[in-house]
Amino acid sequence: MQVSIRLFQNDENENLTQLLKAEFIMVSRDPLDGNRKIRVHGLKAQTPDEAETINRTKEQLSKMHSVQGKHPTNEELRFIDKMYRELMGRSGNDDIVLAPSEMWLHRTKLSITDICFPEHQNMYGKIFGGFLMRKALELAFTNAKLYCKGRVSVRSMDQIEFRKAVEIGNILHFDSFVTSTNGKYIQMKVVASVSDQNRLPELAKINNATLGQEARVNTNVFNFTMESVENPSVLTVVPKHYVHANTYLEGRRLLNNTLKRIVNY
User: Which of 38, 69, 71, 87 is deepest in the core (most CB within 10 A)?
Assistant: First the structure.
């Protein structure tokens, strides 16, 4: 089920002004077995306004699913091809040369690692989702501030996914990237993962140099849109490999949708 929240406040003329809109997608769970889903009651519209709300929500859900895991469109493939042709054309050979105003996507990575303590648990004995969101937002904000070399503000949070519960005692990793840019606006992505406790002893026995890397399990994905307050034109992020190109296109879609919705681009 989808739950919508609107936050309003009176302005100086005592008119209600919308400050915030949030959409939450919930999955019901069996109270006796948290791993089993249960069916929720459907909604029946009693007024035209309610019917419009339900239909609009169905359209939003359909669009959201079409964005997640979406294959590149022909237009996007042509866009990437044009980008690389322009990059290679600067050197006269197959070498890719970045301009001073550009930055490789993989070089924007900023990460932190933490241990999950009991003070951050929820009523079910798992790590509270709000704690994960705060840590991800702080990392994305810090990364964006470093990227812009100045103050930034948060404009939107989109496509936040809680894929897997985080347990007490887990080693928690957050990796952030700048995935797309447009003028003074920056799209940030943060992926949270935990080290699989069952595989860590196995890796320790073989003295793996990258202990824990191969044993990571993704738990959350966060996407944030930031605005550079002091620098009106930030570095343009450029993907270097195919995997980065997919990440870039995903960020580009989210950024364009946010700008259309909030900034009226």
Answer: 87
The pTM assigned to this predicted structure is: 0.80
Phi/psi for 154 (5° steps) reads -85, 125
- Contact (CB, 8 A) for 232 and 158: no
Q: CATH class for domain 102-263?
A: alpha beta
Q: What's the half-sphere exposure (Cβ side, CA atoms, 13 Å) at 148?
A: 27
Strand partners, 37: 29
| 22-56 residue pLDDT tens | 888 888 888 787 678 888 888 899 999 999 989 98
The two tokens of residue 24 are 């939450």
Which residues are within 8 A (CB) of 218 and not within 5 positions of it... i.e. 6 or more apart? 163, 164, 191, 192, 193
Classify strands 236-238 and 102-104 as parallel, antiparallel or unpaired.
parallel
When computed from its CA atoms, the radius of gyration of the chain, rounded to whole angstroms, is 21
- How far is Cα 129 from Cα 132, in angstroms, rounded to an integer? 5
What whole-number distance in Å separates Cα of residue 96 and Cα of residue 84?
8
pLDDT the model gives residue 135:
96
